[in-house]
Amino acid sequence: MPSAPGFLCLDWILSLVCVWLAIGIAGLFAPRSFHYISRVLYPLGAAVGIALAVVAFAALPATAETMVLPLGLPDLPFHLRLDALSALFLLLLGGASAGISIYAAGYLRKGEGTAPGLQCLEYHLFLASMALVLLADDAYAFMVAWESMALTSFFLVTSDHRMPEIRRAGYIYLLIAHVGAIGILLCFGVLQGNGAEGVAGYTFAHMRGMDHNDFWASAAFGLALFGFGAKAGLLPLHVWLPEAHPAAPSPVSALLSGVMLKTAIYGFLRVCLDLLHHPLWWWGVLVLTLGLATTLFGVVFAAVQSDMKRLLAYSSIENIGLLFVGIGLTLTFQAFGMTALTVLALTSVLYHCLNHAAFKSLLFLVTGSVLHATHERSLGKLGGLIHRMPWVAWLALLGVIASAGLPPLNGFVSEWLLLQAFLFTPDLPHGYINMLIPVAAAAVALAAALAGYVMVKFFGVIFLGRPREEKLSQAHDAGILERVGLCWLASLCVALGLFPVFVIEKLDHVTTSLTGAGLGSAMRANGWLLLAPIDADRASYEPIVFLLCIAAIVVAAFLLVRRFWHGRVRVSGAWDCGFPMQTVRMQDTAEGFSQPLRQVFEPFYRLTRELPGSFDKKPMYRVIVQDHFWYWLYLPVARVAELGTRMVAFLQQGRISIYLLYSFVTLVVLLFLIRG
Amino acid sequence: MSHLPLYAQIINLLAAALLLLSFAMLAQRRILSLINLFMAQGIVLCASTAVVAAATEQHHLYWSALITLVLKVFLLPWILHRLIRRLNVKWDIETLINIPATMMIGLMLVIFSFNLALPISELAGTITRSTLGIAMAAVMLAFLMMITRSKAVPQVIGFLAMENGLFFAATSATYGMPMVVELGIALDVLVGMIILGVFFFQIREQFDSLDIRHLEKLKED
Question: Which residue ranges in chain A fall short of pLDDT 50?
Fold first, then answer.
């Protein structure tokens, strides 16, 4: 709640953003002073994150606040607005960045890539620009914040810019970010209408008031889908994601995946549900289809990765796909005026945004700890780390369960809500859609199952079994600051999983402001324990009861085994099936684990396999899995662009006479035209 | 043509001389003669400006004529002579297109310019309006000379000759530009000449030659 009538939540948030900027600039004063930056500035940034989350939480139920900043161009000031949707995503930003910043304080090492002070500047500028994206209330402020977000994150991704593959990843990222930004800019241009209002037309307030015909509304929608889809990693604009996320340092990957992708979701929701009022039904179906394709693509590719950060990046693509599926459902329901179901689908989207921010950040930070402990990111060279790094391993287990969508953690709640929304699609008053969408529900269920498979692979290959390399015995557990960051995010996962009724009640403020209705009132009648989105008779979920049951079963099983089985334990070599000589190399590898899936989904991949011959002295087995889209879509576009530039370069002959001839011919032609 | 006043006849004569000199410059292979032709063009320009001044009693045009005389008849040719002596480049010029072909292109340009100037000179109320086409032709021919020469010094002379054509166009169409503009242009030409002179020495130091074809290597591949 606002503390004083003169000082609103928006003022508080703006001051916190300024503190972030100040922290970033403070890093420049002593760019090489490692201790000052990692022990003072980053924890300070984390504290600001927590404060931001608290203020945003207080702002959720409040009415929208607006402000005009005396910044920007003459006659084009920045407009800011804090409403429930912004507040929710600011809460997400503050909550996730708090954990990531405190982790980054412990993660920073001397002599890695960019100077720490510079990185501190980029990092906090990145955070501040994301906050401004969420607050912007006009196209100009939005684009400025959006672009500074893209640029700062580019510099963060290329922290280790001495490696050519990282520079390449950064280049692809920047390219697609800018192609997407063009889409967003054009979208705002369409939304602005005919420009009769002059300068005032660029504010969101004006766009909200406009009433577009179907054609222009669809054009704006398509451009928004393209622009925000490129930032979110929607198929087929996803290629930057599996390149940029592994290239970045782990806290940055966590921010990119956990928070920045959500700003794209925020922007898309803002345009589709706030600025455009009347969605057409085929928008929803289009988004749903693209989302489904993205989900399946992401999870199928995640299954065959053998680099742990790439695996998580593809898993992010899958989750983005799920979010778009939810948005598609929301738009479809809204187009047919089914408010209760719109709210259900929208709630699942918002809930999943929070969940993904928590568990994916956690998992990326875990890979950071593993990377620092072992200097290895290939799954094939890890293993058995649960003995060396118990803290990291157990916290990773929480993240893995959440990500796999298993109860009682948070991933389950949102996926369950999404599937509930799907179950009501037969009510849709459209012949084909209500028959086809249940098929999509099956695909979502398949993706959820495969996501579980991927997470088993991630956790099992890294932490279980025996160490595959000698040097893994040197691995050490995460430091105290890193543990604090991991615990913070893990506790978010647990809290979001155990108290869904409370969370949904808060989400109601957002759904009410966007669609005019909420789920909470119906649910509160059932009490705090029972989550029943539509009707308690139809489907309900009680996470705490579930947790207690699981805990009881685990304890009972443990005790029973101790009591009855222990007497019969005998010690012998594990898996010693008549083959006495065993090495750690004989464990199931990452490639081996995913081999069945690779067989099943073979047409999805572009596989290059090198098999050893019969007489090889040093037999090597290698599989390279590539993306068809790269060859089918990106390389042809690149070739056309190159051809075009070559033709332009033909003009540049390097001879002064030719250049003079150009101006001469231009002059003569122009004179001739005037004469005519 | 006999019914034209005397002044107009003199101006037409001078304009014809200017055009002839432009063609002569286009055909000339030797740098030394090129500079002399440039000087002759300056004299013609000075004379025509003075005649226009006398005919129309525009006194500021006398000043223009004086500036032209000093700058284009004495100062610039003197600088150019000095330059080629210092650079030792008196020999023949290679052209990129052979001379007869260049002359043919020049002829077509003259026809084009006359055609172009026709509606404009209808509008102009000056006694010298018929010479506008010639002035434009002089500009075009000078431009053509810049294109077809491969050495740096003739290109600069082409540049200066182009300025002559523009100056002539200004006097023939509107009785000259305001004094301030004219002084500014005169200064520009002078400064440009000095800078280009410095560049000549730099180019030669780099490539041991003034052939601008060496500059083709500057292209990015």
Answer: 1-4
ipTM of the complex: 0.80
The shortest C-alpha distance from B98 to chain A (Å) reads 15
| Amino acid A605: pLDDT | 84
| Closest in B96, B109, B219 to A657, CB measured | B96
Interface residue ranges in chain B relative to chain A, Cβ cutoff 8 Å: 96, 109, 112, 115-116, 119, 140, 143-144, 146-150, 155, 212-213, 215-220
Contact call for B147 and A661, based on CB within 8 A? yes
Q: Which residues of B127-158 are buried (b: 16+ CB within 10 A; e: fewer)?
A: bbbbbbbbbbbbbbbbbbbbbbbbbbbbbbbb
Closest chain B residue to A676, measured at CA: B116
The verdict on residue A11 lying in a domain is yes
Query: Strand pairing partners for A623?
Result: A609
As a whole number of angstroms, the distance between CA A659 and CA A669 comes to 15
**Helix spans in A233-280 (H):** 240-247, 250-255, 261-269
Task: State pLDDT tens for residues A248-281.
Answer: 888 999 999 999 999 999 999 999 888 887 888 8
Size of the A and B interface in Cβ pairs below 8 Å? 40
* Structural domain that includes position B50: 6-212
- The two tokens of residue A498 are 């155990």
Phi and psi, residue A298, nearest 5°? -60, -45
Q: What is the pLDDT of residue A2?
A: 40
- Interface contact B218-A671, CB threshold 8 A: no
pLDDT at A199: 64
Structural domain includes residue A413: yes
Q: Does A657 touch chain B (CB under 8 A)?
A: yes
pLDDT digits (tens, 9 = 90+) for A75-122: 788 889 998 899 999 999 999 999 999 999 888 876 666 788 888 899
Q: Which of A540, A562, A584 is the last residue of a domain?
A: A562
Decide if A664 touches B, using CB distance below 8 A: yes
- Whether B213 and A661 lie within 8 Å, measured CB to CB: no
User: How confident is the model at residue A574, as a pLDDT?
Assistant: 65
Question: Based on the domain organization, do A347 and A233 belong to the same domain?
Answer: no
Q: What is the pLDDT of residue A536?
A: 63
Within a domain: B1: no
Same domain, A270 and A308: no
Whole-number Å distance between alpha carbons of B128 and B61: 14
Q: Which residues contact A671 (CB under 8 A, 6 or more apart)?
A: B112, B116
The span from the CA of A221 to the CA of A20, in Å, is 33
Please state the domain count of chain A. 3
Cα dihedral across residues A105, A107, A111, A112: positive or negative:
negative
Q: Pick the closest to residue A424 from A336, A526, A302, A364 (CA basis).
A: A336
Minimum Cα–Cα distance from B115: chain A residue: A675
* Nearest CA distance, A640 vs chain B (angstrom): 19
User: Among A514, A539, A562, where does a domain finish?
Assistant: A562
Mark whether A395 and A512 lie in a shared domain.
yes
Look at residue A126 in the predicted model and tell me its pLDDT: 94
